[in-house]
Each structure stands twice: as structure tokens, then as C-alpha cells.
């Protein structure tokens, strides 16, 4: 099996590569990103996917492709043209280039907009209210049409907040969801920019990578996008659990209404379809902290966010 991973040197991409190695699947990997921080045993293609030649090289000799490369939401809002080129045009070209083969696209819960009315389930309407979310929704529709016509197999997976990204991850408005972990581990004071009753949908990068690999190695075609399972975490509960686990942590709250509206006003989430397909997330705050702290150990490494 020949597999291609785009955004492979990013935070999620590295976790996916680790997961593939752990599964022991017999696969030839091609890793694609703008740059790579280090060498490795897999083939690497350094280049920008907005370059047709790079995109052609990435898709030429593979049986399945996982597309993670993206411009984050905050950066997309500041530069809609760049978002169109990276978050819309590249996936549309991949859908065409991968015709007859398997393509898994990393989507986003941003398609539901900020502070969606809930609960959210598999029948909930996507109503994006950001550049990033709108481009992600447009890709969902294009993929669904291609799958309906039998032109492509695979799925679009709507990812929740993934923790813990590298500290102060550029372009991610939801960076506080990860920064609270880094501060707790370092034992430095941190002001969580939302109140204790704020709620977000999150999962560890380990769960995210496992779900992405499961989709990549599958054989079905999901016409409708799949909203992945996530833990709906109350920020006060997360803070309390971190302080109990890491006594040196000093975490307080100061409400930022804009951040709360955009990233911490999420209702209950019901993902029956994803569960039926075998996708999972952490069941509780303790399990989430266990998974994140394992990745933040001194021997773990994290790269920059995925890029195009």
C-alpha cells in the first residue's frame, strides 16, 4: 500500500506518522510539507501544495492520501485569499487528482459556526460564520458530490479542538485550550481567557491520529462528512483536574467574550454515526489529561502546526 500524508511535519501529521508506525501496516509512506525539521526513514517531499507540480508529485504514486495541510482559522480570517488558495483550492484539486482512489480530508467543527445551538448531532445543519469554516464547508460539499458519483472513496472528518498543540500555536484562536496544559506542566501562572463554565469540544492528538489512520486504512466511501467524537469539557473542570494532578499549577479565569463565543460555547455533542464507524475520543477529563501529559513528557517532540 502506498500512502501520502500532507501536512506531515505538523502537530497532527507527526502524530499520524507515529500511529502508522505503531500499527505495523505494510505501507510505503510519502510525507509532504513545506519544510521538514528532521530526516526520517520515509520519503519526503518538501514543497507548497498550491504549486501544481508539487500537488501532482504528491498524488502521482499513491493508493490513499490523508490531507492535513491547512491555514489555521485565525490566519484564514486575516487573509481570505490565502485561505481560498490553501483551504479550498488545494482540496478541490486533490479531489480531482485522487479520482478513483482513497482520499481522507481533515475537516473542522468550524462548519457549525461559533456558539452553535445544540445539542449537535449527525442531522445538525452546518452554518459556518468564518472564512475558515466556510471554505471547509465548501470542500465538504465538493467531496460529497464526488463520492455520490462514485468518483472517489474516503471521507471528510470534522476534527474538534486538538490538544495540546505547541505553546502559543500561531494562527489558532483556540490556542488557550493547549496553552493551559503547557502552563500547568511548567508550573507557571496562567489566566484561562474564558470563565469556568465555558465548554469546548476537544480530544487528544493521540485519539485524533488514531481516528485519521482508521479512516485512511478503511475501504468505505462516506458521502456525508463525519463529525468525530470529542469530549465536551467544562473549563473549570479541566482547571481543577490539572491543579489536582500537577500541584505546581496556578490557573485562574478571566472572561474574554470574543474567545468564549468563538471557541468555548459548545453544546452537547452526539456522534452516533462516528461511533458506529469505530471512531473514539477520551471519555472523561482524566483520560484526556493522561493522554496529553504523556505527549508533553520531556522526551516527546512536537512540530509546528500543519501548513500547505
Radius of gyration in whole Å, from Cα? Answer: 18 Å
CATH fold group: Rossmann fold
Number of strands: 12
Low-confidence stretches: 299-308
Give the SSE string: EHEEHEHHEHEEHEEHEEHEHHH
CATH superfamily: NAD(P)-binding Rossmann-like Domain
The overall average pLDDT, rounded, is 93
- Counting structural domains, the number is 1
Question: What percentage of the residues does DSSP assign to strands (E)?
Answer: 15-25%
Major sheet: size, sense and barrel closure? 7 strands, parallel
How far apart are the first and last residues' alpha carbons, in Å? 24 Å
The chain-level structural class is alpha/beta
User: What is the tally of helical segments?
Assistant: 11
Strand order of the largest sheet: 3-2-1-4-5-6-10
3D structure, described in words:
The structure is a single chain. Strands 3-2-1-4-5-6-10 form a seven-stranded parallel beta sheet, sandwiched between helices. Strands 7-9-11 form a three-stranded mixed beta sheet. With 308 residues, it is α/β, with parallel strands linked by helices. Helix 1 (11-23) packs across helix 7 (205-216). The chain has helices at 11-23, 52-59, 73-78, 80-97, 131-148, 176-186, 205-216, 235-245, 257-263, 272-276, 285-295, and strands at 2-6, 28-33, 43-46, 64-67, 102-108, 153-159, 161-163, 189-192, 199-204, 226-227, 231-234, 250-253. It is 39% helix and 18% strand.
Amino acid at each position: 500500500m502506498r500512502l501520502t500524508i500532507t501536512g506531515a511535519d505538523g502537530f497532527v501529521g507527526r502524530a499520524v506518522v507515529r500511529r502508522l508506525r505503531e500499527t505495523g501496516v505494510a505501507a510505503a509512506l510519502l510525507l509532504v510539507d513545506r519544510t521538514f525539521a528532521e530526516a526520517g526513514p520515509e520519503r519526503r517531499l518538501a514543497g507548497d501544495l498550491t504549486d501544481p507540480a508539487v500537488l501532482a508529485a504528491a498524488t502521482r504514486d499513491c493508493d490513499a492520501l490523508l490531507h492535513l495541510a491547512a491555514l489555521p482559522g485565525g490566519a484564514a480570517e486575516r487573509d481570505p485569499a490565502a485561505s481560498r488558495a490553501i483551504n479550498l483550492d488545494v482540496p478541490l484539486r486533490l479531489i480531482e487528482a485522487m479520482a478513483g482512489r482513497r482520499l481522507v480530508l481533515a475537516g473542522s467543527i468550524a462548519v457549525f459556526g461559533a456558539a452553535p445551538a445544540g445539542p449537535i448531532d449527525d442531522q445538525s445543519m452546518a452554518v459556518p460564520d468564518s472564512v475558515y469554516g466556510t471554505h471547509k464547508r465548501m470542500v465538504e460539499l465538493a467531496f460529497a458530490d464526488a463520492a455520490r458519483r462514485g468518483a472517489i472513496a474516503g471521507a471528510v472528518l470534522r476534527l474538534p479542538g486538538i490538544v495540546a498543540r505547541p505553546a502559543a500555536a500561531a494562527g489558532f484562536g483556540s490556542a488557550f485550550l493547549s496553552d493551559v496544559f503547557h502552563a500547568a506542566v511548567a508550573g507557571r501562572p496562567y489566566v484561562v481567557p474564558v470563565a469556568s463554565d465555558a465548554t469546548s469540544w476537544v480530544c487528544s492528538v493521540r485519539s485524533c491520529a488514531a481516528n485519521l489512520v482508521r479512516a485512511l486504512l478503511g475501504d468505505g466511501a462516506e458521502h456525508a462528512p463525519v463529525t468525530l467524537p470529542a469530549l465536551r469539557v467544562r473549563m473549570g473542570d479541566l482547571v481543577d483536574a490539572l491543579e489536582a494532578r500537577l500541584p505546581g499549577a496556578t490557573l485562574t479565569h478571566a472572561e474574554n467574550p470574543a474567545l468564549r463565543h468563538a471557541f468555548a460555547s459548545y453544546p452537547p455533542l452526539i456522534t452516533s454515526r462516528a461511533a458506529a464507524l469505530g471512531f473514539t475520543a477520551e471519555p472523561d477529563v482524566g483520560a484526556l489529561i493522561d493522554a496529553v501529559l504523556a505527549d508533553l513528557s520531556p522526551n516527546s517532540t512536537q512540530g509546528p502546526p500543519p501548513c500547505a
